[in-house]
Amino acid sequence: MSYKCVNCGVAATALYKTYGPSVLKLTKCETCKGTVDKYIEYDPVIITIDLILISKEAQRHIIYNTEFKSFWKLLIILALLETYGVWHNDSLFSIAVNNLCDIQNNSTVNTTYLSIPPTYLPEPWSECVSWRQGDKEDADVFIWEKDFYVQFLATAAGNLVFLLNIYAVMTLMRKLGSQKVVCSSQVVRGATLAAAHGALALPQLVWGTNASPHTRLLHYTLVWLYGVGVYSNMLTVLYEGPRLVTIPLLVISNLLKFVTIFHMSPIIRRVLT
Ligand SMILES: [Zn+2]
How crowded is the C-beta side of 215, counted as CA atoms within 13 Å? Predict the structure, then answer.
C-alpha cells in the first residue's frame, strides 16, 4: 500500500518506524518536512471533527492512509437515508418537485409546498403526473413499501449519474493537465466520505415534523451548500483540481442527479407494475 503525506499529498513509503515493541516514531515528509500522518495517533472522534470541519488533511488520512474497508456500509446507510427523504416527501428534491409540478395535497401543503406565484414557475413537465400520487396516508401499505424500492433505485441511478459525470470530467481534466493517476476505488471511497454530509439532514427528518416549508428549504439548502464545499475539497484532494472547475462541475452534476431521479422514478415504477 502506498501512503501519502496528509499535508502536501506527496507519496510516502511508511507512516511510522518501529524501534522495539513499544517505541514507534512517526515518519517525516521529505517534501514539506511535516509529519506524514499525524492522525494515526489521533482519536477517531478528533478525526471525525476534522472531517466535519472540511480538513483536507483528515480527508487524505482516510482515503490514502487507512483501508476504509467499511465504506460500502456507510454507502448503503447514506443511500437509504437519501431515499427516505425523497420517499417521505422531505428533501430538497421533494421541495423542487412539489413546487415545479404544483403538487398540493395533505402531504405537501404545510411541509414542502412553498406557494410560489405560478407566474414565476415554468410550465409543469409531463412527468409531473406520476409524482402526483395523492396522499400516502390513503395508500395501501404494500404500494407504499414498493414505492420505497422504486425511489431507492431512482436515487441510486441519480447518484451514479452524479459520480460518473464528475469522474468523466475530472479524468478529462487530468488528461489535459497534471497527468495525475487517480484510482477509481479511491474516487468511490472519497465520494462516500463526502456524501456523509447528508447525515446533517437527519435532525430535520427526525424532529422537524412541524417545521414550515421555508424552514425545511433553508435547512436542506444549507446542507446542500455544505455538501458542495465538502465535495469540492474532496476533489481537490483527489485530483488537485482548481475550485474554479470543481464548484461549477458539482452544481451541474447535482442538477443532472435531480433530473435523473425525476425521470427514472416514473420509468422504474412503470417497469415494476
Ligand atoms: Zn508533505
Answer: 11
Centre of ligand 1 to C-alpha 5, Å, is 5
Ligand 1 centroid to Cα of residue 227, in Å, is: 27
Residue closest to 231 by CA, chosen among 221, 218, 241: 241
**More confidently predicted of 106 and 261:** 261
Task: Report the 3 state secondary structure along 206-247.
Answer: HHCCCCCHHHHHHHHHHHHHHHHHHHHHHHHHHHCCCHHHHH
d(CA 216, CA 95): 9
Sign of the C-alpha dihedral, residues 232, 182, 245, 8? positive
Q: What's the pLDDT at 134?
A: 56
**Ligand 1 centre and the CA of 225: distance in Å?**
30
SS3 of 273, please? coil
Average pLDDT of span 12-38: 90
pLDDT at 214 over 70: yes
The set of cell numbers assigned to 237 is 484532494
Environment of ion ligand 1 (residues, CB < 5 A): 5, 7-8, 29, 31-32
The CA 230 to ligand 1 mean position distance, Å, reads: 22
Expressed in angstroms and rounded, the spacing between residue 63 Cα and the centre of ligand 1 is: 16
Roughly how many angstroms between the first and final C-alpha of the chain, as a whole number?
48
What torsion do the CA atoms of 123, 129, 131, 134 make, to the nearest 10 degrees?
120
Measured between alpha carbons, how far is 165 from 108 in angstroms, rounded to an integer? 31
AA letter at 191: A
Grid coordinates representing 15?
507512516
